[in-house]
Amino acid sequence: MTAADSTRTFDLPIAVDAMGGDRGPEVVVEGVLDAIENYGGKFLIVGNRKFLYDAMSARGASGHPDITIIHAEDVITMEDSPVDAVRDKTHSSLVLAAREVREGRAAALISPGNTGAVLAAGTLLLGRIRGVERPGIATILPTATDHSVLIDVGANVDSRATHLLQFGIMGSIYARAILSIADPRVGLLSIGEERTKGNELTKEAFPLFERLFAESAHHGRFLGNVEGRDIVNGRADVIVCDGFTGNVVLKFGEGLAFTFIDLIRSRIKATPLRKLGALLVRGAFAEMKKKIDYTEYGGAPLLGVKHPCIICHGSSGPKAIMNAVRVTREALQFDICGRIERTIKTFNEESRNAS
Amino acid sequence: MTAADSTRTFDLPIAVDAMGGDRGPEVVVEGVLDAIENYGGKFLIVGNRKFLYDAMSARGASGHPDITIIHAEDVITMEDSPVDAVRDKTHSSLVLAAREVREGRAAALISPGNTGAVLAAGTLLLGRIRGVERPGIATILPTATDHSVLIDVGANVDSRATHLLQFGIMGSIYARAILSIADPRVGLLSIGEERTKGNELTKEAFPLFERLFAESAHHGRFLGNVEGRDIVNGRADVIVCDGFTGNVVLKFGEGLAFTFIDLIRSRIKATPLRKLGALLVRGAFAEMKKKIDYTEYGGAPLLGVKHPCIICHGSSGPKAIMNAVRVTREALQFDICGRIERTIKTFNEESRNAS
After folding, report:
1. Which residues are bridge partners to A225 per DSSP?
2. Of all residues in chain B, what percent carry a pLDDT higher than 70?
3. Could you read off the pLDDT of B103-133 as tens digits, one per residue?
4. Cα–Cα distance, B343 to B352 (Å, whole number)
5. Is the pLDDT of residue A294 over 70?
6. How far apart are CA A267 and CA A286, in angstroms?
7. CA-closest candidate to residue B225, choices B252, B246, B244, B204
8. Best of B146, B148, B245 to disrupt the A interface by mutation (most A CBs within 10 Å)?
């Protein structure tokens, strides 16, 4: 099956790996049940049969008509070596869930497990879309005005200029699907706005972006180089970088946001008067926390594989799982994988004709 | 003159480029006068004579005994191409100030001008310390517990493993001098803690760090790889990365902090009750702002050149200049340049003997 068939698969269930996360299968079951309540849909939950039955009945949902449980004897842990584990642990919940998708019995894969293993399962079992050189992980970040898409945040460590270009194409499609931005502004992350600023990689990528976006407005607008501050100030909708830089930025941002909240929380309670003030403004903090809370964004998709593959944070709770389902449904509705396949195909044909 | 002589130069004045910043020579004069009041010391202020005399007399400081004004006809602007400007604009305030240091009439250079040009002046005019492959820019960041040093934040775009190792040595010396940390914890910025995680560069650098720190506790303790979150959570005192990644991180952090403050400020005034609360907690915000305010940290030194060379933010005001003077004085007192020279020399000799 190719990605282009995925529109036909929207009535198929979504396969969810329930075992790989830090918080066990109960939170995954809970998240899926919440998702069914809010969005509907059918699910295959893959994991230890006993744990899953127990979790279902604890929620009074034994024999739920929209959930099929698939037993998996094994689990890939956070300590497992990703590629080895996906190859060797053939009875793990992740591998079985991915196989349901690969063999056409499910439309998409969600896992809160070992990120490297989900990446390996996505690439090796779901399969790369033809013409995509390297799949990339996209993530949504809050900005001053709205949200932006950062791609790649860690699927690859050493990238080439053509990989960055494809991240730009895929990120732009994702921004249209999930953020509903008709004409995304795409920036190449660098250390100065001039085209001559950057490292070897970005300097090589810059003219490729320029040519692509000049030839077809279809991909959005190319802003040229953007800088670190532009990731959050609302200037760009899609920010493209290599996976090393993106991963550092993502984890730094998480760390900074939480450090910031901790610091302000301790200072805001330093005197009795401030404590009273803190009580009055706590709603503002709750809103801020929601804005920077990754669980609101529902996981990060691996773009460039044949079916939606959503990588959730290892510590995902029910809300993160539920939001991952929402994102997965949007990805299916928008036919992201099919669009990526067609766009990359056209792009590659045009590139061949031009050269 | 070699860096080792710099201890003898502590009674020499500090040369300050007054013209290159965004906010004109007045704020530089003001910052220097504030620094003299707080810390003492002698200064050469380099720039347009008339502007500087006017600024001095506006502060009632005409003919101040600790300030010598050196006239410069030209100025390097933010738009100038750095290396060309340093080579061609021989009568610019930056080049003349750097020449005062190079020719032994001043002990250190401070400039809020074009960062690339200050970098070029530092490397070309002050000169690299023998044995240092690439100078690197260090910056101090606030963390949950205290502060950390991030190096390199943009002196280089494409680095080699041996450059990173030298950044580690220099950053460790800087942390001891400015943060008074006797035994700095040094981390290599990567995307996973295991030694096998990272890009080609960090994977090559990891064993170099391991060997160096195992052989000599003198450099501090090597934490191995650290991740983006560790830049701010207080786990590491010195975080080493290539200048591309460091520059992106620095600008992203600035952007995120200000976006964060803007967001919370707008939410905290959303209702009348919250406005009252905001009034009560405003002290907490002022403390936070101070903590993340770059002007408190007094500019970023270019480490690896023969004399202290402090690069200030282009929009530096009097306080940032004053703090840059404080940092410069600490760098001189601790003899950072001499220590870097001796440490790198010993390190290079040991490396040669080992191979």
Report:
1. A188
2. 96
3. 999 999 999 999 999 999 999 999 999 999 9
4. 14
5. no
6. 17
7. B204
8. B245
